[in-house]
Every structure is written in structure tokens, then in C-alpha cells.
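Hey,
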Amino acid sequence: MSYELSTRHYLAYSLPVITFTCLMGPINILQGIYAKYYGIPLTVIASILLLCRLFDAVLDPLVGYLSDRYCQHFGTYNPIILTGSLLFLGSSYFLYMPPINVDALYLAGWLLVFYFAWTLFEIPHLAWASRLAKTSVTKAKIYSFRIAAGYTGLLLFYAIPLLPIFESRDITPETLRVLVMVVIILALPFLMLCLKTKFKIPRQVNPSNVQKAFSAHTASVQKSSFSLSLVKNKSLTIFLVAYLLIFLSSGMWYSLIFLYVDVYLGLGDQFSKMFLLAFIVGIGVTPIWYKLSVYLGKKSVWILATLLMIISYIFTGYLSPGEAGATELIILKTIQTLGFTCMGVVAPAMLSEIIDYSNWKNRSDNSATYFAIYTFTSKTSLAIATALGLFIAGWYGFDATASSHNEHGAFGLTLAMVWLPSLLGVLSLPLILLSPIDERGHQIICRRLEAIAARNRNKRNVIEKEGVRFID
């Protein structure tokens, strides 16, 4: 059975990501803003970010589980996505528009709400795409639209400091205030268009109906089998460890890049420009990565992307104050964006194929739970990486408020941004190669899922004839 998605469907699904990613953009430089403009020490910010990220990550499996149960019962993720979206917009207002006398407690409180709201939106939205796209090609395509929308949002964020209404090109509290107001105006119509678009989601297995038709014992067996399958799923384990290592490396780099450019290199006025131009490239190469993943396979392009990210880390170490300029920064961020864009396309698509394998083995759709594990891994690794990067820089004496820096502080910055991320990236390469599910294997899984769906339809018809009525 064939289910086609049109360009209209891909666009409608991706639209909210533009505005919400625009609000996620400052989160990687938030530590620099609160340290530079509000005087909160880096070590205190590092502790807050670590605790908030870990708390947020712990909530992911619960949100994923409840999202799956809700979707299986009501057939939609929309109310959860809507709730998370509205809460996300509200928390962004307070996080990016703090009072002048802001303290660490204020930052911690609104950061917790901000992360929780993003989780309520992100997990069901990612799982929704996995349910919409059933083939290896359409999975790569829908996530390529999603990553392109994300880069469009980041492009919008980094374009705002370049507006003529500002005296400088630096990212400042005033920049963030304008950002929040612009995004709120755009976010609501984008969200409504997404949620009101009619999508036809094919049902390969209807676990809710099967459970009603047979017994409660069947449901408990399925849950036990699913929990056990998570532990024994070799493909999932390899994927998550590789993903963890890459996010640890990129998280350390991202946690310090704003301070590196603005404070260490003294090129804060070039920061928005380097990200803006790089994200234009990111949007342009997204369809290229999609095509390459179809022709070369997702594993091959993921390895290429990881190598590009390693090159960007090493290139960072060759930049020095007084010598580096706008050209070097643009080259650096472009290389890094090329790799990260590819990862945004292939990683969720590969996980979606692993989900299909689980659906075949366990006869139930737990997409949101799998994506909750996925986001739990990324958030935990980013929390550890951000805290580790800031702690290493602070431990070696790097001062975000100083105008000049000694060799000891510069070494700590380089260790956290260059050498440790490069090592972690290298360690991920053999794991990506070992991933057992490829495009041919996924085609086999799809055929077996179709066979199960056909048998379930036949069972359903027989049971309905005997007087059992199903409610979808």
C-alpha cells in the first residue's frame, strides 16, 4: 500500500520549526549573555545549565511514553504539540527579556520551564514525522525539510543583530528582546497551519485495537517485550553511542564559541555574520545531503559529516587574536555547519528506520518513546559537554570579563574547544560503520510491516463480523 506526501505536507509539518528553532538559537550563547551583561559567574552558569539540562533529559522518556499512549488512544499528537508550543513561547519571553537585577535563581527557574516546553513540542513532533514517512527515501526527505526549517530559523535569529535599528552588530539583551517579539508574531500562524493541515497517517499495526480485541494480558506482554527490546536492540545501542560522542564533541565547541569569538578573538561584531552566512549555506546544502543519503547511503554521508566537524574543531585551534578575521570565521562556521546539517538529516531518519524494526519485532508503534530516548541522549550529552567546556575554561583561568588573556587561560579554552571534541569525533567513526540497518535492510522491514498490516486488517474484519466494534 502506497502513501504519498506532497510538498505542501512537508512544508506544513516543518513551519513551526522555523520560529521555535529561532528561539533555540540564543540558548548556545545564553551563558555568554548572562555572564557578560548580568555578571553571573561562568561556574555558576555551568552548574545551572548542567542541572537544568539533566532535569530536562530525565523528563524526556516520560513525555515520550505519555505521547505514545495518547496517540495510540486518540490517534494524534496535536494537543501535546500545541501545549508545548504555547508554554515555549511564554518561557522564552521571560528567559530572553529578564529584569536588570536578574540573579541565578531567575535564570534556573525559567530555563527549567523553557526546556520542559521544548520537550513537549519536540518529541511528539519528531515522532509524528516517523509515522508520516514510511520509506527510507521519504524519511530522509521529511527530516531534510525539518532541518532546513531549523536553519531558516537560525538564519532569522542571526539576521536580527544586523538590522539598522541597532548601534552595533553584537548580540545583546536588546537584540534578544526584538527577537522574542518578532518570533511570537510569526509563531502562532505557522503553528495553526501545521496543526490544521490534513495528514493521512497509515496504520501498519493498531496496538490499541488488537489489545481490546484479545486481552489485557496481551498488553502487558507487549510492554514487557518492548522494554526488553530496548536493551537488546543492537542497532539502537550502536546508534545512540555514536550520537552521544558526536553531541559531546559539538556541545563542548558550541558552549564556548561565543566567548571564543567575542571575548578571546575580540571579533564580537562578526559573530552574527559568520553564523548568518554559514546557515545560508546550510539551507542550500540540505537537499544535497538528502540526495547523497539516497544515492550513497546514510552511513556513508554521516561519516563524511563527522569528518567535516572534526576538521572544524581543529581549524578553530589555528585562530588567534589579532590574526583571525571575518573570512576565517566564516570558513570555520561553514565547515562546521556542513557537517551538522548532514547529521540533522540522516540521524533522525536512521532512528526512524530503527523504530520500524522495533515495530516489526514488537507489533506496536512506540515512535515517541524512541525519539524521547534520542532527545534524552542529545540533551544529556549537551548538558555534560556544556558544563565540562565551561568548567575546563574556568578552571584554567579564562575570564569572560577580561580584555586580555594569559597563555594558561587560552590553553584551557583550546583544550575544551579543539582537542577533546576532535578525540570524541574520531571515536564515533567506527560505531557509525558498525550500524547494521542499511537501506536494503529497511526495505525488507517495510515489506514485513506491510504483511503484518494486511493480516491485521483481515483479523479486524473477522472480529467485526463477530460483533466486536473498533473505534479509531
